[in-house]
C-alpha cells in the first residue's frame, strides 16, 4: 500500500474537521487504505500509526462513510495525484 494514500485521507479528515463538517464521505482508489481504516491492519504495518490517527480524528465527526472507488471513476483525485 502506498502510504501517500493514507496521508491524503488523513488530510481530508482534518479539512472536514476544520470546516466543521459532521457528515462526510471519503472515497479512495486505494482499496488497502480503505479496508485498513474500516477493518484494522496488523500492528507491525508501517501505516498503523496514521490509521489510528485517522480513526481518532474521524471519531470527532458524527458520520463518516469510507468508500473504495476505481481510479477511473475518481477523476478529480487522479488529476491531483498526477500533478504531485
From TrEMBL:
It comes from the Eukaryota. One of its GO terms (molecular function) is RNA-DNA hybrid ribonuclease activity. Residues 14-83 form the RNase H type-1 domain. Pfam families: RVT_3. Coiled coil: none annotated. CDD domains: RNase_H_like. PANTHER family: OS05G0353850 PROTEIN (PTHR47723), POLYNUCLEOTIDYL TRANSFERASE, RIBONUCLEASE H-LIKE SUPERFAMILY PROTEIN (PTHR47723:SF19). This is RNase H type-1 domain-containing protein. It comes from Arachis hypogaea (Peanut).
